[in-house]
Design goal:
The complex is a heterodimer of chains A (about 280) and B (about 300). Chain A contains ten helices and no strands. Chain A has helices at about 1-35, 50-80, 85-100, 100-115, 120-145, 150-160, 165-195, 195-200, 215-225, 230-260. In chain A, helix 4 crosses helix 5 and helix 7 (about 165-195) packs antiparallel against helix 10. Chain B has two domains: about 5-50; about 70-300, MetI-like fold (Orthogonal Bundle), CATH 1.10.3720. Chain B has eleven helices and two strands, in the order αββαααααααααα. Chain B has helices at about 5-50, 75-110, 110-125, 130-145, 150-180, 185-190, 195-210, 210-225, 230-235, 250-260, 270-300, and strands at about 65, 75. Chain B has a two-stranded antiparallel ribbon. In chain B, a hairpin with a 6-residue loop joins strand 1 (about 65) and strand 2 (about 75). Chain B is flat. The chains are: A mainly alpha (about 280), B mainly alpha (about 300). At the A-B interface, helix 1, helix 2, helix 3, helix 4 and helix 5 of A face helix 1, helix 2, helix 3, helix 4 and helix 5 of B.
Chain lengths: ~280, ~300
């Protein structure tokens, strides 16, 4: 009986989820199909696909900033950093910073980049801020993925005469690849739908935020300006935003499903270090 | 030494050089990342130290409302903090039990196929961005009667339900991992002692997963505290008069986002926004570290 209650409640939760997603898709699909390639005044004379390309370009830029720095830092912290107290504190702080809400990074971007009038372009500011926001998350994901690789892989590679870098490149990174990809894709999905830093940055009058055509920001503006207006364009934008985020999540899920979990051994508990 | 060996040695030397320089590059990346993050923190700290020199800074902890555009301006930070915590607590109180129940169903009761379907569904629902969740909430409220005016309690209720909707999939995915990591021997011993399925769930599995459940609560609390868009959209549309000063939706992120439009650098308001940002950052930072400590406890207990 009690188990039946659990089943019932979880079906309720799932039902609400299905209803919400289904409603979004049903209402959004028609307008999305109509507005995707046709320019309408609702989108400021742009087609939806132009706005979407603009959005994707910005977030690809942010990822291009965050990825090399983040992955490099993650590799260093996991594989080469000295085993000192200070390093552990550094790692803990970066992990904590990954959970700091995006609006705090937006506040930084708003204040810091508006001081330098050389960066007039609001898109550049958004790109830099999103990159900085994504950075600790990528460091954390890389670090966590590398730490999941059993330490015996490293010992065996070193015992065969490989140098530390060969060990990292040939033994550790290939085993951590999937976990790394999942983490990065989820970070990208999160940054693609987040609007808080853009709201703060676009509030700066000198930056020309009104002409900002980024999909989540467009959706936010159109809701607060026309709360009772035509829903068609808003549903189309919402569905497109959801589809972008879902696409990234689906790739991550595919990687996760096809992943064969290795047998957990004692070496997992040693932490991923060879010394 | 013949030429072939020499060539090989040269090759080896080249690859060793590449390896060394790659190691150096990761070091540079790490230093770069740390410097960038330190600059962010130092910038925020710099803007805050100014605000304590301002004459109005004595009254910022009072319970007065937050209304920076009124005359005289009121900066009730305590008011914002209470609202934020209240909203996050309401959302977590809704989300955590439902998330736990769904996770228990997926790991303990459902068949393998149903569990997969539910897992997939939770991931799909988790992919809905917060701005879309807020949009759907507004559509639901305005759909029938085309009115936007809600009382304080209704605003709080709507906002916490929307935040809970956003938090549930993450709680479920996190709890599934925790519940799966509980060794099968726990369950087997419970059954061997004659406990029923329900008794096993309540008396064996839930206590074993207690630190993990607490960690899930803390993580969702941190995420909900920092979430801006939903409360921000609702407060600009729903209250009886726009930007009503006593709305429960005046949370810390809302005040930051709305303040960014009117604050001028050098004013108290501007510096207080950074103080709010720091408070928010410290809160989510410590919640996340606490949550991680709980995960470690969970792993330690199971060994």
């Amino acid at each position: 009986m009690a188990c039946f209650c659990i089943t019932l409640l979880s079906y309720l939760v799932a039902g609400v989820g299905v209803a919400v997603v289904g409603y979004l898709v049903l209402r959004g699909l028609g307008p999305l199909g109509r507005g995707f390639f046709r320019a309408t005044p609702v989108y400021g004379g742009n087609t939806l696909i132009q706005i979407w390309f603009q959005t994707v370009r910005i977030f690809l830029g942010a990822i291009c900033i965050a990825l090399p720095l983040g992955i490099g830092a993650g590799i260093y912290l996991s594989e080469y950093a000295p085993d000192s107290r200070m390093m552990h504190n550094t790692i803990d702080s970066i992990i904590g910073l990954a959970e700091v809400p995006p609006i705090v990074y937006g506040l930084f971007g708003w204040g810091a980049f508006s001081l330098y009038r050389g960066l007039e372009q609001v898109l550049t500011v958004v790109l830099l801020t999103s990159g900085i926001w994504l950075l600790p998350r990528i460091v954390l994901e890389t670090y966590a993925a590398l730490q999941q690789v059993p330490v015996s892989y490293r010992r065996e590679s070193l015992a065969l005469g490989a140098s530390p870098w060969q060990t990292t490149w040939r033994a550790v990174l290939p085993s951590a690849r999937r976990q790394l990809a999942i983490g990065i894709l989820q970070g990208m999905a999160r940054v693609s739908g987040e609007v808080a830093p853009i709201i703060v940055i676009a509030a700066e009058p000198g930056l020309g935020g009104d002409s900002l055509t980024i999909l989540p920001y467009y959706l936010y503006r159109s809701i607060i300006e026309f709360p009772l207006g035509s829903r068609e364009a808003q549903f189309a934008a919402a569905l497109l935003l959801f589809a972008t985020s879902l696409f990234l999540h689906l790739i991550a899920m595919l990687i996760e499903i096809t992943h064969v979990t290795p047998v957990l051994g004692t070496e997992y508990q040693e932490g991923g270090r060879w010394w | 030494m013949n030429s072939k060996e020499g060539e090989q040695a040269q090759k080896m030397g080249f690859w060793r050089f590449v390896g060394r320089s790659m190691e150096r590059l990761t070091w540079i990346a790490a230093i770069g990342a740390i410097v960038v993050l330190a600059v962010v923190i130092l910038f925020i700290a710099k803007e805050i130290t100014v605000c304590f020199d301002q004459p109005q800074s004595q009254c910022i902890w009072s319970l007065a409302r937050w209304n920076p555009v009124s005359e005289p301006a009121r900066y009730g930070i305590a008011f914002l903090l209470i609202n934020s915590v209240l909203l996050a607590a309401c959302a977590t109180v809704v989300a955590l039990p439902l998330g736990l129940i769904t996770a228990l169903y997926i790991t303990e009761i459902a068949s393998a196929k149903m569990a997969q379907v539910f897992w997939l569904l939770m991931r799909v629902v988790g992919a809905v961005p917060p701005v879309v969740v807020g949009f759907l909430g507004i559509v639901t409220v305005t759909g029938r009667n085309r009115t936007l005016l809600l009382s304080d309690g209704e605003q709080l209720f709507l906002c916490s339900v929307l935040l809970a909707f956003m938090a549930i999939p993450r709680i479920v995915c996190f709890l599934i991992e925790t519940l799966r990591s509980i060794p099968a021997s726990f369950k087997a011993s419970s059954y061997a002692l004659g406990a029923s399925h329900w008794q096993t769930i309540v008396h064996t599995i839930c206590p074993a997963a207690r630190p993990g459940i607490a960690a899930a609560g803390l993580f969702s609390l941190g995420r909900v505290l920092g979430d801006t868009v939903i409360a921000l959209m609702l407060i600009q549309i729903l209250p009886l008069d726009r930007f009503a000063a006593n709305s429960p939706l005046w949370t810390v992120p809302t005040a930051i986002a709305l303040g960014a439009e009117s604050a001028v650098p050098g004013q108290t308001h501007y510096h207080l926004l950074y103080l709010l940002g720091l408070l928010l950052a410290v809160a989510s930072f410590s919640l996340s570290l606490l949550g991680r400590q709980l995960i470690r406890t969970q792993r330690g207990e199971l060994e």
